[in-house]
Amino acid sequence: MDRSLLPIDRRQFLKAGVLTAAGMGLLTCVHKPSVTFEPLKPLRENPHKKSAASTDSDDSKPDLEKVLLIGIDGLRPDALEVADTPNIDRLINEGAYSGKAQAGKYTMSGPGWSNILLGVWEHKHGVKDNSFKGSKYDEYPSLFARLEEVRPELYTVSIVSWKPIHDHIITTADKRIHHAWQDKGDELVTQDAVKILRDQDPDVLFVYFADVDETGHQYGFHSTVREYVRAIERVDDEIGQIMRALHDRKQYSHEDWLVLATTDHGGRGTGHGGQSPEEKTIFYIARGSAAVRGAIAPPPTQVDIAPTVFRHMNVPIDPAWKLDGKAAGIK
Ligand SMILES: [Zn+2]
Questions:
Q1: Whole-prediction pTM value?
Q2: How far is the CA of 301 from the centre of ligand 1 (A)?
Q3: Alpha-carbon distance 161 to 184, whole Å?
Q4: Residue 217 Cα, ligand 1 centroid: separation in angstroms?
Q5: pLDDT for 62-117, tens place per residue?
Q6: Helix locations, the chain, DSSP H
């Protein structure tokens, strides 16, 4: 199959008003139609239509709901707009998007990923920084723990290049893999995700990339910093490989994948942790047949990710969980 079919059309973005005027001038000269994954399958109105690649003769079963959650640490949406990112752009074009989504009160990784993976804010989970002191994960466990509790038959996988996520937040999942960022961690996260998508049958897969944040700390979190923009382009390539593996799955035509992507915080200068718009403004993507295409209004927040995963996975939200968010960007 010719993978260059369906080139990215950034004009769709512009029409949708997703990009800011600041990004537009640069985008016209960096456009490159290097899409690496295959077309989205038909939407829900005909979910069981057999594709040429289908080998399953049983069309009576409903599609299997699945989630790929992509975490990119420290990615500012305004820098994402400037970077040449055909794979992320495609997720945006085919899904629901906000470049005005909001992080919480403490713009650091410990609290940020807690907000995202638990679905409650810091006044409940108690994490204020990367020491994780005061955490109440027993009372507010991760979405992985909830999924395993309600639907233990699900195969859940988390692959990260920042270990504290597994030490503290995702302590319950069927498979947890950590690769140190310093030792090509992001590349190894990608390799493992590709292998698992090819050889196994994950229902919920979380992949996390540290490189963008690490590069921001070294050179600066800004759309004019070449090294930072290049790090974003590298992670886009990782995501392209993962999306290709997802689309190449033998059962893909009988699966209903929701792809979510977000970040824990932005950055300012070479750091983050404060309350500035540069640190608090984040992106949010929801792509799949369940997604409501276009800009998400009002902008979602970090705590909306977990309820969105639960809704797609048909896991009823128990009021006793005291979640702070609501499903965003999907029907
Ligand atoms: Zn950082």
A1: 0.85
A2: 19
A3: 9
A4: 6
A5: 789 999 999 999 999 999 999 999 999 999 999 999 999 999 999 999 999 999 99
A6: 10-16, 21-30, 77-82, 86-93, 109-118, 122-125, 143-150, 164, 185-199, 211-219, 226-247, 277-280, 305-312
CATH of 10-34+66-321 among 3.40.30.10, 2.170.270.10, 3.40.720.10, 2.40.440.10: 3.40.720.10
Question: Which residues crowd ion ligand 1, with CB under 5 Å?
Answer: 74, 213
Distance 218 CA to ligand 1 centre (A): 10
Tokens describing residue 265: 């915080």
Q: Cα separation of 329 and 301, whole Å?
A: 11
106 CA distance to ligand 1 middle (Å) = 12
Q: How far is it, in rounded angstroms, from Cα 94 to Cα 288? A: 7
Please tell me the distance from the alpha carbon of residue 142 to that of residue 120, in angstroms, as a whole number: 10
Helix (H, G, I), strand (E, B) or coil at 217: helix
Say how many Å lie between the CA of residue 272 and the centre of ligand 1. 6
Q: Give the pairing of strands 281-287 and 255-262.
A: antiparallel
Q: 195 CA distance to ligand 1 centroid (A)?
A: 28
Output the CA 314–ligand 1 centroid distance in Å. 34
CB 89 within 8 A of CB 267: no
Using the mean position of ligand 1's atoms as its centre, give its distance from the Cα of residue 201 in Å: 32
Render pLDDT for 215-251 as a digit per residue (tens, 0 to 9).
999 999 999 999 999 999 999 999 999 999 999 999 9
SS3 at position 99: strand
Q: Which amino acid is at 115?
A: N
Ligand 1 centroid to Cα of residue 189, in Å, is 18
